[in-house]
User: Which sequence fits this backbone?
């Protein structure tokens, strides 16, 4: 089982909707939100909690599932057969749920040029070469963020996070989204599957799942969730 959900954060800019969702949050999420200084950051954290509640309730899962692993990754308490992961950036929040260890990452693609310093620090020589072979700066940026989100999702799946150097493993990326992605690494002995999506909205969406089954032929499409409508349905 592998499912993905995406929601926009923007609706929580409405003060009424924000307060109504905030009141539904468990204590740990409220505390996390209130410790964030920037209003946009508070909205993203609340949107992550709202998407969690919406999905977990629709599937009959507990809405306060957290057990924190060794590296700070959250798990369902009492459910060793189910895994989830969250990511948010800009106006997007993403949730992945699987019966295998899973990690996801969404990043807003910022305008500008690819930083050579950042690329040298975080990407392998082969990854840097593919970025450099792009036709123009726009394609370079797209490849940069495709690599970034795929590498982040892999590290989040392993649970190691940034304790592992991002240039210590290599993602082999197809020219176009939808092609086969492979991974060269000695970080974790398990096999992994990588996936990515693009919706032309200025964001990169990626996912990694710790399993050997090849899902490249499957039509795994994220489900979009309206957090305003979702709240009315949770009454």
Assistant:
């Amino acid at each position: 089982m592998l499912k993905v959900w995406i929601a926009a954060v923007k609706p929580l800019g409405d003060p009424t909707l924000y307060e109504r969702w905030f009141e539904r949050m468990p204590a740990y999420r409220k505390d996390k939100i209130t410790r964030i200084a920037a209003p946009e950051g508070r909205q993203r954290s609340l949107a992550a909690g709202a998407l969690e509640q919406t999905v977990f309730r629709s599937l009959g899962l507990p809405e306060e599932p957290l057990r924190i692993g060794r590296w700070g990754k959250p798990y369902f308490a009492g459910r060793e057969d189910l895994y989830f992961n969250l990511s948010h950036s800009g106006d997007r929040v993403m949730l992945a749920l699987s019966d295998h260890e899973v990690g996801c990452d969404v990043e807003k693609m910022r305008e500008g040029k690819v930083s050579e310093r950042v690329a040298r620090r975080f990407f392998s020589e082969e990854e840097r070469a593919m970025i450099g072979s792009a036709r123009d700066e726009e394609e370079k940026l797209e490849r940069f963020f495709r690599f970034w989100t795929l590498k982040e999702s892999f590290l989040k799946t392993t649970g190691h996070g940034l304790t592992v150097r991002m240039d210590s493993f290599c993602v082999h990326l197809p020219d176009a989204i939808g092609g086969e992605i492979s991974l060269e690494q000695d970080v974790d002995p398990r096999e992994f599957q990588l996936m990515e999506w693009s919706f032309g909205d200025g964001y990169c969406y990626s996912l990694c799942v710790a399993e050997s089954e090849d899902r490249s032929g499957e039509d795994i499409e994220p489900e979009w969730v309206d957090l305003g409508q979702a709240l009315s349905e949770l009454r």
